[in-house]
Amino acid sequence: MLAFIIRRIGQALLVLLAVGFVSFAMFKFMGDPLENLLGQEATLADRAELEERLGLNDPIPVQYMQYLARAMDGNFGVSYRVGLPVGEVILSRLPATLELAALSGFLAIFFGIIFGIYTAIRRDGFIAQTIMTTSLIGVSLPTFLIGVFLIWAFAVNLGWLPSFGRGQTASVFGVELAILTWSGFKSMILPAVTLGLYQMTLIMRLVRSEMLEVLRSDYIRFARARGLGDRAIHFGHALKNTLVPVITITGLQLGSIIAFAIITETVFQWPGVGLLFINAVNFVDIPVMSAYLLLVGAIFVTINLIVDLLYFVIDPRLQADRAGGGGH
Amino acid sequence: MSTLPVLSISDLIVEFPTRRGVLRPVDRVGFDIARGEILGVVGESGAGKSMCGSAIVGLIDRPGRITGGEIRLSGERIDTLSQEKMRRIRGKRIGMVFQDPLTSLNPLMRVGDQIVETIRTHLPVSEHEARRRAVAALEEVGIPAASTRIDSYPHQFSGGMRQRVVIALALAAEPELIIADEPTTALDVSVQAQIMALLKRLCRDRGTAVMLITHDMGVIAESTDRVAVLYAGRLAEIGPTRDVLSSPRHPYTIGLMASTPSPTGGADRLSQIPGAMPNLRAIPPGCAFNPRCTKAFGPCTSELPVLKPVGRNEVACWLFDDALTGNPNKAEENA
Description:
The complex is a heterodimer. By secondary structure, chain A is mainly α. Chain A is built from 13 helices and two strands, in the order αααααααββαααααα. Chain A has helices at 2-29, 33-38, 44-53, 60-72, 86-121, 126-140, 143-157, 182-215, 218-225, 230-259, 261-268, 273-282, 286-314; strands at 170-172, 175-177. Chain A has a two-stranded antiparallel sheet. Chain A is globular and about 85 Å long. Chain B is α/β, with parallel strands linked by helices. Chain B has a domain at 7-102 and 177-191 and 205-229: 3-Layer(aba) Sandwich (Rossmann fold). Chain B has helices at 49-57, 83-89, 101-104, 111-122, 127-140, 146-149, 159-171, 189-206, 217-223, 241-246, 251-258, 322-325, 330-334; strands at residues 7-18, 21-33, 38-42, 65-73, 76-77, 94-97, 177-181, 209-213, 226-231, 234-240, 308-310, 313-315. In chain B, the strands form two sheets. Chain B has an eight-stranded mixed sheet with strand order 6-7-8-3-9-10-12-11, sandwiched between helices. In chain B, strands 2-1-4-5 form a four-stranded antiparallel sheet. In chain B, a hairpin with a 2-residue loop joins strand 9 and strand 10 (234-240). In chain B, helix 5 (127-140) crosses helix 7 (159-171) and helix 7 packs parallel to helix 8 (189-206). Chain B is globular. Chain B starts with 6 loop residues before the first strand and ends with a helix. The relative contact order of chain B is 0.13. Classes of the chains: A mainly alpha, B alpha/beta. At the A-B interface, helix 9 and helix 10 of A face helix 2, helix 4 and helix 7 of B.
């Protein structure tokens, strides 16, 4: 168990090193940073002096190590556009994205699992068939289209919910959260639904097919032969057995909810890191782009690590080294 | 104590409506099992053995259903009960043991929890009492250190031990009848004998009736009191095990015995029955065995034979119809 965790953490660090190299390489290959820093009147001497001072003459591996060392300190450089440290800029935007991702992730998992179980148990029912057909829309429509449609329906025509922005925020331990205020919560509904709809349909379809598979298995037949009721069979026996593959996919999806919040944040002008990233791209604000890349990489790797550890909690067969097997 | 048979089936028909017509995996099968008796049910794959078992506990997969006959458990008719009432009988009054102990248990649940769950589903006892009974049940099926093994997961047991757990589960609520569907097929030969001995001992001690579904003639010879031979969903022959084994009457049973190796038999080659059991979609008219039968004559290809007593067996074969042959022992002379 411990060996497994250490091995997995080692792999995670390797992945992060690779991601770090890509984000470091962005500085090297996307435009000339000195151009931006020096301005029109700089002399060649100024240029050489700055190059030396910033360490740009050092060999690439040395520069990469320096970059990593700075990144560990949380120092990602200064944003070209707003002139503030990138770490600070991202940190101020991160809560908005995280709360949006958390709400849509929760909606996706909650309704995905409930609908998935329902459509598996009542496979031939009218409601189940309707849900399955409707879910095709969620799978096939692009996110921005769903966002625009929701704005058209609920903001423009019905006028129930705001179409953009984050509303008011309330401060908890110095973190500004919108979900705690009424106007903030209302502003979150449309973006959260937009962001979570695809994930929800995906989780639902996955839970359904896994559940159908499990319900055909021998131990479910045996559970019925033991006279257990439907509820005990569906929720006590079948659900847990469907969860292992579901957790894998769901974990990956949660990572992409955060990473691909970019589109939703753009459609709804949600002031999170996704919108920050899009603006950074427009202004070629490389320090911000590179830090965002590292951040998303770190989030993905962390979630994957947690998913791997969750397997152990759910499936006792993976802990084979902990208890001895018995003989005849 | 009542003299009613624990299980009494008569003219049971199971049908599956399909797009290409109605299939009948079980066709007018009837037999009784008395208290403490072990009835063996033999036949090839697809002969309807397991389907019979599923029908008794009301667990036929859709779209199949019972369309004829009746099933009585200690005199009470159970094939017409509601699903909920049937559920309460399963596990409580009829226990089941399946073929593969590796897949019969939920892999993510401790075996003790699965036993406790079963006990508490059927008996009004506390968690603590149910656990005490679960340990006792595991001890009874011969699991060493039951009070600690109760917290193990299924994968921490060997195949034979797992089948013991499955038997403990089937017996947990003290059922009147056990339906054991090929309980030893997936096990090592050395373990098979242990499991059969265990099942026999437990059922004899409690007076539990057993319906033992198998295709292993060795298991039949060793463990059963009576044996029923199924062919293409129909009962071909039924009788005391010794009589069916030593003097089979139905040509199919004769062929079945001749194709089973015996430790004393001197034949170099085992004989085999030519052909294969008919597909359920194409059961021939008359006796289903007639295309493979060497003694088939007139009525076999047109009229369905019914069970008739021959010696101590009951046989469904035209060879034993006095009116047709004039001699009830004709087949024996030919054999």
